[in-house]
Amino acid sequence: MSKSTKIPDNIKLSELIQNRMQEISSLSQTINADPRFGKLAGQQVPRHMRRRAVAHDVMRLPRRLRGKYLREKDKEGGESVTKRPSRKHRRRPANLLKEYNRRQQKQYWLETHIWHAKRFHMYYKWGYKIPGFPNDKGWRACYRATKSSCLMFDLSYFNTIQIQGPKHVITNELSALTRPETGQVFNTAESHLEQTALVYLPKADDSSDALAAEVSYIWLPDEQNSGSTNARIWISSHPGFIKDLWKTLDVAFGLNLSQKFENEEKYSTESSTENEPPKKKQKTDEVPPSHEASQEKSEKPLNDKTNKEKTVKEPEKEKLAPRNIPHDRTPKYKGKEGVTITNLQGVINRFRLVGPKRFEIMKTTCVPATVKPKEDANPAVGKAGLQWWKKYFGDREKEKENEELNKVFGESKSVDSLTCLTVRDPRILLPIKKYVKPVENKDTKSSEKSKIAKSTYSVNKSESSALQRTKLSPLFFDSKIRDSVTLSKATNCVINKRRGNLGISGVTIPIDDLESRVPVLLSPQNHIDSLDILIPAGWAMPFWMCLVYNGCRVGGEKEFDHLQLEQSRPPLMYRFPDSLSGEIEAETRKEDLQKDYFDHPPLHRCSYPILGIASPFTAPWKILIKDWAAEDAFINKTKPEITSIQVMRDTRVISSLQQLTSNIKVISSADENCLVPVKLKIACRGRLGANSLICLPSRADLEEVMESGLWEGPVETNQQDDMEKQRKETIETHKAQKKRLKRKWKKLKDKQTLMKCQSTALGKELDTEKLNYLATGMATLKQMRNTENAAFAGKSEDLWIGEFNTVRNSCKREVMGYVIIGDMSYTEGCYVGHGFVTMKGARSWLQLLGSLDTDSCNSSASNQARNLVLTRETSSPQYRFSYLEFV
Question: Does 247 lie in the same domain as 184?
């Protein structure tokens, strides 16, 4: 024995015996145990045969252990997983189509979904699966396409509603839902253009009406010459506004749809069954229809000719199963005075083309078709449905109108009005490979092109008037014709066979009577320099592929929002914080930003209380308006009450604000406590992002800029974080509580182990009552620990942000508004943003500018300081100067 070893003075005999008893009992139990028993079924096979896959497939175990494994799994509360069909079974064409339709039960897919899903990140929004952003390039490549070629978006998720009935009833009810001062009302004068309107939802009480949606509308041509007794209008809306729009139409026309929208949800936000594999077919006593058919088939005599006939499969029609095709399946609602409202969701596809070559590519894809049948054509050949155009254009007047329209369309260089064309099947015209026309680099030619582009409207004015004089054909708006075009579409194999029979590849197939004619509607959006094409259901992919092969670049929702920012207007869902849909969208963005913030560890989080940022994830409009209204309330000794958000959209008030005059006349007190939309552009260095502060500059700030011209702006001093101490105390308390619960759980666990060991060593029966008591205690402690973790997670997030009841004076400069969206603009060459400021804050800023102009003797320096406000990002203490413009 070594000298360093020290023998203890005394030994705890009870503890020593207890430990040895546990060891002896475990050894004896292991030695005497039968190797076939006492183990789980998955452990009774050699180690080289043990697989984790057994948990999913019990067939990987020997047959003698499968029953025991399933019993053990059921006893533990696990669910038996049915076997997924083989890949060979799943890849059969019929099963692929069934899976394609099944996965659209919870969320609506676009017809171009498969094409987008291979190339884009897909988002689930507003009940649709829409493309988010491409995998290959960012916004820079899309911006180049808008400047030199063409950028395309699939906007088929925009919902279309048709209202039909007496024109005076439709006009009166729809006009009652709009406000004339906004300048966006339902107008019947310009029926050759697609226009926009702001729809308000009237309230039952005396409070101001709430905004429901911004919609675009088209007055359809009168096909039956019925005058004003049977007018039709198409209203297109963003899916984020569609629920509020239906409520508005319900109030206007008395459709009784309130129960539908309150109790029924067509598309659920839960996508739990989205990625589930098809369930295994269970054996039942009932005979399935396919088996009955096979039995009937087997009972027929073998020499029956019908037994040899193959059933013709129509995959194009099977893909239309989730859609409202034909027109009889579309939901229709009866309103007052004979008004009928039809939901055309999924019936119309809409593509938007942006860029200088949009019309050139459109003419390459939409080639007008001849509708005069050939004399030597055999009417018995082919489907009769493919020749719907023969019956429609059998009238000589319609055929002549189509020829004139094709001639004008072929000679024109742009489209300035709604144009309905009958075009060829785009699959016939599909190029062999993608082709993008190169941009010429010569300065002379580029300058000539820029001049032509700037004066397009003046040069093509005669052509535009010619198109406007051409009567808008009701061809595309006829539901029967759209159904015929959709249901009679030739399969891709037929088109590919025709292309393959050509002797020389790349030669255009001549038109014949068997080729489909497709009616399309071209809708120019002159205010945003884009062109929309409306296509019947079932024809989205042929036109989409032809447009892509002719040089169109494709963008997603992210690029679509950024494009609107480049066009000096905020995205659609950012413009209306006073609507219910806008509030829901803002809450969604808040949750995303908050989740991203708390995903970072505490050391990598920005301390917003120190920076003086009260609300970093969303703009608290009601609190901001209340803060600015409290000044007048203090003078008048009244308590301000802000129950709703109002946005100033009166064109007269906006025009007076744009002139930078502080003498603004408002109609009511509600307009006094409202928000004003603004556009911001960074003056020098800095960035503009979501929820950036728009602050009122002091007189000293503007004078400093006028003197130096290079001053970046003031810096916010660090504020006291009152919650830091409380956060640390909460963390320490949480850790102590977890240790205490763990210690108690360990005690109960040791007692349970000791009871089992003593029972085995001494051969006594277990005290099941006491054992169950210990198990209950352990489960209770575990539940308490989970509750403590959940409570700490929520409480810690609140301690990082904190509660607030004022935001105007949360930092050194008074907060007058917030930026809702901001990013780098390639057109402006700097960061731009859109947001809202309070009306009283705008007045204070205009008064400051007016006093500065009066006292300043240097007019150039005064002009330099005009339109300047202070902006600050939520993650920076540095204030930056930005130019503010009312829009």
Answer: yes
